[in-house]
Specification:
The structure is a single chain. By secondary structure, this protein is α/β, with parallel strands linked by helices. The protein has a single domain (42-196), classed as Vaccinia Virus protein VP39 (Rossmann fold, 3-Layer(aba) Sandwich). It is built from six helices and nine strands. The strands form two sheets. The protein has a seven-stranded mixed sheet, sandwiched between helices. The model has no long low-confidence stretch (mean pLDDT 94).
């Protein structure tokens, strides 16, 4: 099966053309609810494949001071920088996730990034998340529990696959059906929280 080259050019073109059907316009409710449970505002947090970065904006508004966002698309990052005044410009990382080396992080938030990468890279995603996190650091967010597409993003998956992939490097603290998904994704998402094995 011939997949499109999911590189910087591909994603920046999608942003320039405003072909961003995944963009919901605000922080996902499940992630916002999770953020509201975090007490330490100095946690070093990464959101890869951030797009418009609504979760980062929510963190910024809540007073978190050590948040980094990464995306292939400079267009997306420029849009975020213009919208979210006061967010540190040096925390906007236009880069390939698999080349990031500015960890370690206390927490990485997953929101429509895993489903956007080539499925052949999923084990490398797990390995890179492990490398970027501090000992006992956490990876948390949303994953599609749906087949979705085979020839273009978003690519689907299911709980059985995720458990199999992640348990090598992570303890699974939670991986359950999300109860507060946005309506178009209701019954199609898992909320998960993982802890890096020491």
């Amino acid at each position: 099966m011939n997949l499109p080259k999911l590189n910087a050019e591909y994603w920046d073109s999608r942003w320039q053309q405003q072909d961003t059907g995944w963009d919901i316009g605000y922080a996902a409710p499940a992630i916002a609810q999770f953020i509201d449970t975090l007490e330490d505002k100095t946690l070093k947090i990464l959101i890869p494949g951030c797009g418009n970065g609504y979760e980062a904006e929510y963190l910024h508004q809540k007073g978190f001071t050590n948040v980094f966002i990464a995306d292939f698309s400079q267009t997306a990052l420029d849009s975020f920088g213009q919208r979210v005044q006061g967010f540190p410009k040096e925390h906007l990382l236009c880069a390939d996730f698999f080349t990031l080396d500015n960890g370690p992080y206390d927490l990485i938030i997953e929101q429509t990034f895993f489903c956007a990468i080539n499925p052949d890279l999923r084990d490398q995603y797990v390995q890179k998340m492990y490398e970027l996190l501090k000992p006992a650091g956490r990876l948390a967010g949303l994953l599609f529990n749906d087949e979705l597409n085979k020839d273009h993003p978003p690519f689907g998956g299911d709980k059985e696959e995720y458990v199999k992939r992640f348990t090598l490097h992570f303890d699974i603290l939670s991986m359950e059906k999300c109860t507060n998904s946005i309506p178009p994704r209701a019954e199609r998402e898992l909320w998960f929280e993982l802890r890096k094995k020491i």
